[in-house]
Design brief:
Structural class: alpha/beta
Order of helices and strands: HEHEHEEHHEHEHEHEEH
Shape: elongated
CATH architecture of the largest domain: 3-Layer(aba) Sandwich
Helix content: 25-40%
CATH superfamily of the largest domain: Periplasmic binding protein-like II
Strand content: 15-25%
CATH class of the largest domain: Alpha Beta
Number of domains: 2
Largest sheet: 7 strands, mixed
Number of helices: 9
Number of strands: 9
Distance between the termini: 35 Å
CATH topology of the largest domain: D-Maltodextrin-Binding Protein, domain 2
């Protein structure tokens, strides 16, 4: 196992970023789907990817223990710079074999049939309190959801798989379900005209904005 001195030596002489810490709630999936494919393959670069809570990670970033943080919230700090990476939109999706009793055109003008139909369906959630689903219902449908999820999985990729396998409906970010809808592995129930969005940010120390490692990271993400 490398000593702390070895780690510091490696970090200093790579001259490029060594660690990205991602928030566990959404960026874990975002990193896998959107960032991993863009990482440079270079024998002089080492990556250490970890996940944690935004508040904890921003503190570590401020203390110079991290190179950068990918987060779903901005925690105000005069020493930290935030740049918007991506704005995800949430879609209501269903299994590929399900029959939807109404069209997208109807839903864009009247969501009443969807509310009634959705209450009769099984739901797959990221958490027991249905955090994403509950927000979608409130913002898009204008009502509260009053159901218990059939399946709870704290990984949006696994939620996507479960929907595809026929366990029920769910609400997922577009970057996770766009290709699956196009390839008919999921059925798009509703892409709302009143979008439900979530912003994903790149955070780094302002004092290092012009450093090579941060510039390289920006090139990958933007």
């Amino acid at each position: 196992m490398a000593s702390e001195n070895d780690k510091n030596f490696r970090l200093h002489f790579f001259l490029l970023w060594k660690s990205i810490y991602c928030c566990i709630k959404f960026p874990q999936e975002f990193f896998t789907e959107k960032v991993l494919v863009s990482l440079q393959h270079d024998e002089n670069i080492s990556y250490v990817i970890k996940y944690g809570l935004a508040t904890e990670l921003i503190k570590l970033l401020k203390d110079s223990e991290l190179d950068a943080v990918i987060a779903t919230q901005k925690i105000n700090d005069p020493e930290i710079e935030y740049q918007l990476i991506y704005e995800e939109n949430f879609w209501l999706v269903a299994p590929p074999t399900i029959e939807i009793p109404f069209t997208q055109d109807i839903l864009q003008s009247d969501l009443t049939p969807l509310v009634k139909w959705s209450r009769q369906q099984s739901w797959i959630a990221y958490g027991e309190d249905l955090p994403i689903i509950r927000r979608f219902w409130r913002v898009v449908l204008g009502v509260r959801i009053d159901t218990n999820p059939k399946l709870v999985i704290p990984d949006l990729r696994a939620v996507r798989d479960a929907v595809s396998y026929g366990f029920g409906l769910s609400v997922l970010p577009d970057y996770l379900c766009q290709d699956w809808v196009d390839n008919k592995r999921l059925t798009l129930v509703l892409k709302p005209s009143k979008a439900v969005t979530n912003q994903i940010w790149l955070a780094f120390r302002k004092s290092e904005q012009q450093t090579q490692k941060i510039q390289m990271l920006c090139d990958i993400l933007f």
